[in-house]
Design brief:
CATH topology: Four Helix Bundle (Hemerythrin (Met), subunit A)
Radius of gyration: 16 Å
Number of helices: 6
Bound molecules: zinc ion
Structural class: mainly alpha
Oligomer: single chain
Distance between the termini: 36 Å
Shape: globular
CATH architecture: Up-down Bundle
CATH class: Mainly Alpha
């Protein structure tokens, strides 16, 4: 049985908005970084994001911390899942992710159980 998330059109729009807001806040921060280094204008930075869509240039990502970079990737992946109506499903167990969790972390790729399992595994490193 192919897994499809039970998310209404309205909810999908809400999640899309949340994801884009977060994405833009990261990009804005990045624009500030570039403005300070005076290497690139804010408009150019925003332009880069629009054009790059899911693949960003090295220069562009240079202004981000590792966690921001990771978050940006997760946001893009979540937006992609929204388009394919796979949004809200855990990438590991394919069960629905708790909506309360999604409202706080809409880019979450895993349900709480799988996330905890993953975190438990990486703690041993
Ligand atoms: Zn899961």
């Amino acid at each position: 049985m192919p897994a499809k998330a039970k998310i209404s059109k309205k909810e999908r729009e809400e999640f899309r908005k949340l994801l884009l807001e977060k994405k833009h806040s990261i990009v804005r921060k990045l624009s500030q970084y570039y403005n300070e280094s005076k290497e690139i204008e804010t408009d150019t930075a925003l332009d880069l994001v629009d054009k790059a869509e899911t693949s960003y240039t090295k220069e562009f990502l240079l202004g981000l911390t590792d966690s921001e970079r990771e978050q940006l990737t997760l946001i893009d992946q979540a937006l992609e899942r929204l388009q394919k109506s796979e949004f809200g499903l855990c990438l590991i167990c394919h069960k629905e992710i708790n909506k309360k969790r999604l409202k706080i972390i809409p880019w979450a790729p895993y349900c709480i159980e799988c996330q905890e399992k993953k975190e438990g595994e990486s703690k041993g490193q």
